[in-house]
Amino acid sequence: MMSEGIEGTGSVSERVEEIGTMSIVSKMDANDSLPTNSSEAWDGVTADGVDTAMRYFSVVIYVVTFVLGMLGNGLVIWATVFQLKWTVNTVWFLGLALADFTYLLLLPFSAAYLALDYHWPFGTALCKIIIGLEVLTMFASVLTLTAISLDRCVSVVTPVWSQNHRRPRLAILVSLALWGMSALLSVPTFLYRDTYTYDGETTTCYTNFATMAEEKALETATEEDYDAALEEYESIKTTRFQTLAIFRFLLGFLLPFLLIGASYATISLQLWCKHMAPSGKPFKVIAAIILAFLLCWAPFHIFMFLEVRHPPNLPYSLALKVGIPLSSSLVAVNSCLNPILYICMGQDFRDKIKRSLRKILEQALLEDSTVAHDTSRARTKSVSLGNEGSTLV
After folding, report:
1. Nearest-angstrom CA–CA distance, 284 and 290
2. Which residue range forms the structural domain that includes residue 371?
3. What is the C-alpha separation between 362 and 347, in angstroms, rounded?
C-alpha cells in the first residue's frame, strides 16, 4: 500500500495507471488493470465506453464459463474417481479436471472484481490467496498437459518398457510432483500480491513489486535525493515485473509448448516409420486439448508482452483496451473446454444422445486398443494397445 508521503509527491492517477500496468501475469492478473484516463490519446467517451463494454463482456463470459465448466469438470472428476477403470489416462485427465475445477471455483471473484468496476472488497489476504491459487492451477494444468504428451511419446519410443512399468500409481506420484512444482512457481504471486485503496473508497488487488523497505526508503528520501530514489524505485519494480512476465511465459507457455510439439512430432515420425496411423480416440482428444490450449493461451501472452512494452505513464491504446480482457476471457474459456472435448470426441455425435454419459466418458478417457501386426509374442507385446499401462497411439 502506498504511503501518504509517496502520494504527496506523485500523482495518484499515475500510481493507479502503474498498478494496472503491473497486473497481467496470471489468469486474473490480466483482468485487474485499472481503467486509465485515455482522453489524451483518443476520445474519452469512446475509451470509457470500450472499457465498460469489455468489462461486462468479460463478466458474461466468466458466468457462462463458470456454469459450464463446473458441470463439465465436476462430471469428469466424478466419473474418473467413481465410475471409470483406474488407468494412467484417467489419472492425467483427473489432474486436468481438478486444476480447471479449482480455477473455476475462484472465477466468481474475478467476475465480481470486474462488475464492481475494478474494486476489490475482499481484503488483502484473499487478494494473495485467490490470485496465488489461480496461478498455481494455471501451472498445474499446463504441466499436466506437458506430462501427458511426454508420457505418450515415451510409450511410442519405448513400448516394452512402458508396458512393464507404466502404472496408475506412478502417474499419481508424477501428478503430485507437478502440483508441488506448481506451488513453488506460484510463490512470487503469494509474495508480491497486495491491495491499494485510492480516492478513499476504491481498492484494487494488484502486483506490488516493491518491498516495504523500498517503499519506506522512498518515503524518507530527502527532497534533493527524491528524484534519484524514485527513478531507482521504478526501475526495480519494472525489472521485477519484466522478469516475472518472462518467467511465466517461458515456464507457463513456451517450454511446455515446445515439449508438447516435440513429443507429438516424435510420435508421428515413429508411427510413420512403422507404417501405422495415430487413430485412437484418446489421441484425438489429446490433440484437440493441445490445440485449444494454444488458441486460448497464445493471445494472452502476446498481449502480456505488448503491455510489458507499453510506456507506464501513457494511456492504453484501443488494441490493448480490447485485447487484454478478450485474451483473458479466452484463458477462462479454456477451463471449461476439456470436458466438452472429452464428450464430443468420444464417439459419433448421433450415438452420444443414445448413450449414458458414463459410456461417453469411458470411451473418451480410457486407453486405446488395437491389433498387433506380428505373430511373435515379443513383437506383439511391444506394439499392442489396450492394457492398463499402455497409451500407445
Report:
1. 10
2. 22-215+231-383
3. 10
Query: Contact at 8 Å (CB) between 282 and 365?
Result: yes
* Residue 10 within a domain: no
Answer for the pair 79, 347: CB distance below 8 angstroms, yes or no: no
Mean pLDDT value across the chain? 74
Q: What is the mean pLDDT of residues 273-282?
A: 61
Assess contact for 314 and 13: CB atoms under 8 A: no
Q: Is residue 106 part of a domain?
A: yes
**What's the pLDDT at 217?**
79
Express each pLDDT in 179-208 by its tens digit: 999 999 999 999 889 998 988 888 999 888
Amino acid residing at 375: T
What integer pLDDT is reported at residue 89 of this predicted model? 84
Q: How many CA atoms lie within 13 A of 296 on its CB side?
A: 21
> What's the Cα-to-Cα distance from 376 to each of 369, 380, 381, 382, rounded to whole Å?
18, 6, 9, 10
- Looking at residue 245, which CATH number applies to its domain? 1.20.1070.10
CA proximity to 6, closest of 236, 194, 212: 212
User: 14 lies in a domain?
Assistant: no
Q: Could you read off the pLDDT of 156-168 as tens digits, one per residue?
A: 888 888 888 888 9
Q: Please give the average per-residue pLDDT across 41-55, as a whole number.
A: 69
223: in domain: no
Instruction: Give me the residues paired with residue 197 across strands.
Output: 203
Residue-wise pLDDT tens digits, 309-340? 777 667 777 778 788 888 888 988 988 887 77
